[in-house]
User: What shape does this take?
Amino acid sequence: MKWTEDLSVGIEIIDTQHKELFTRINDLVDAIRSHTCKYKISDVVKFLDDYIVFHFGEEEKYMLERGYPEYEQHRKQHEKFMGNFAYLKEELMKLEGGKKPGSYDLSVETNQVVVDWILEHIAKLDKRFGKFIAESKGMDRG
Ligand SMILES: [Fe+2]
Ligand SMILES: [Fe+2]
Assistant: This one.
């Protein structure tokens, strides 16, 4: 999965965080390819668990500060993703409870869930917010 300019929302701090998410997902993709993912998945899920909460929090804070009219709608999408992610976390915990480091299937599933969601969410909703910010900046300048 490659971060390209057309995924830029035009807000540097948010783009930087998105790039960090891409980097971590790509580490997982590499691990799947090299068949080391079952030892890597636990770290990836734990990292994402923290980082996604942080990232969503930052976006939502920024939206509130700027009086974004679609804040509530956007926040709900974040919440929905957290629900899907919680399922992956549970699956991982079940494996760990059974003293297994992780699994190939869970790695592939995590990859799919996160990649599909992230690309779609950034391309549609995060960019929509970026556009709102760009337009309101234009208005400030008169
Ligand atoms: Fe985002
Ligand atoms: Fe978002």
Summary: The CA atoms of residues 63 and 71 lie 6 Å apart. The chain has one domain: 12-140. The pocket of fe (ii) ion (ligand 2) is lined by residues 59, 74, 78, 121, 125-126 (CB under 6 Å).
